[in-house]
Amino acid sequence: MNASLVFLSNSQAMEEYQDLVALLEAHLAIVEEMVVKLQVQMDPLLSIASKLDALNDALQFQIQQMDQLCNLFSPLTESQPPTTILPPPLHATPL
């Protein structure tokens, strides 16, 4: 094998390797930029999700409170017959 051909071949391989590294670095920069953009878009969504979680917790607490109140008053309402609430008459004032 000729030494100059081996050197030329190694030189070409090194150039291709460096080109590939440069290309990968360019793609990495694009991906990093996209990640930053997605993170900027995700931050408000995460804030909204956190607020919704807090609201859900508050609603669950209120539901538990209402259940406890219903359980307290259920013995009273079970012993009494249900009452019918009628709407007021259409003409409440005499004509």
Q: Give the N-terminus to C-terminus distance in angstroms.
A: 122 Å
Largest sheet: none
User: Helicity range of the residues?
Assistant: over 70%
Q: Report low-confidence residues grouped into runs of 5 or more.
A: none
Helix count equals 1
- The total count of strands amounts to 0
Let me know the average pLDDT: 82
Oligomer: single chain
Which of globular, elongated, flat, extended, rod-shaped describes the shape?
Answer: rod-shaped
The succession of helices and strands, N to C, reads H
Helix and strand composition category: mainly alpha
| Proportion of strand residues | under 5%
Q: What value does the Rg take, in angstroms? A: 38 Å
Quick gist of this model?
The chain has 95 residues and is mainly α.
Structural descriptors:
single chain; 95 residues; mainly alpha
Structure description:
- There is one protein chain.
- The chain is mainly alpha-helical.
- Helices cover 81% and strands 0% of the residues.
- It has 1 helix and no strands.
- It is rod-shaped, with a radius of gyration of 38 Å.
- The termini are far apart.
- The model has no long low-confidence stretch (mean pLDDT 82).
